Amino acid sequence: MWTKCREVQVYVKDATLANFALNVTTNDTFQISYDMSLNYTITNPNANIGAYFGRIQSLAIQGETQFAQVAFKAILPRPQNDNHVARRLSRESNHVVWA
């Protein structure tokens, strides 16, 4: 018996940016502050297969520079079910260099 396994889908359902400031401090160095809320939906489209995710991370990247990271707790999306997860990314006084 063969079972067709489809990929678990993860996408941002809603994003809110409450604060954002970018200031130049020196040549090619910036000070960034932000407060962002993200609502994720994790969907398992499979009828009989569960998938366990022991580690999930959300990264904020500008160009080639990563400036934020948040981890999720372990999650088990049940077959043919949606899981909704909310996370907040915020930071002040992060010095970022963009080339």
Draw up the topology in text.
Elements (H helix, E strand, L loop, with lengths): L8 E18 L2 E16 L11 E7 L2 E8 L8 E17 L2
What does this structure look like?
With 99 residues, the protein is an all-beta fold. It has one domain (9-94). Helix content is 0%, strand content 67%. It has no helices and five strands. It has strands at residues 9-26, 29-44, 56-62, 65-72, 81-97. The strands form two sheets. It has a three-stranded antiparallel β-sheet with strand order 1-2-5, with no helix packed on it. A two-stranded antiparallel sheet has the order 3-4. A hairpin with a 2-residue loop joins strand 1 and strand 2 (29-44). The model has no long low-confidence stretch (mean pLDDT 77).
Q: In what order do the strands lie side by side in the largest sheet? A: 1-2-5
Q: Radius of gyration over alpha carbons? A: 18 Å
Main beta sheet? 3 strands, antiparallel
Please count the beta strands (DSSP E, at least 2 residues each).
5
Task: Spell the H/E element sequence.
Answer: EEEEE
Average pLDDT figure: 77
Could you give the distance between the termini? 54 Å
User: Helicity level, as a percent range?
Assistant: under 10%
* pLDDT < 50 stretches: none
Count of spatially separate domains? 1
Structural class: mainly beta
Number of helices: 0
Strand content: over 45%
How would you describe the shape?
A: elongated
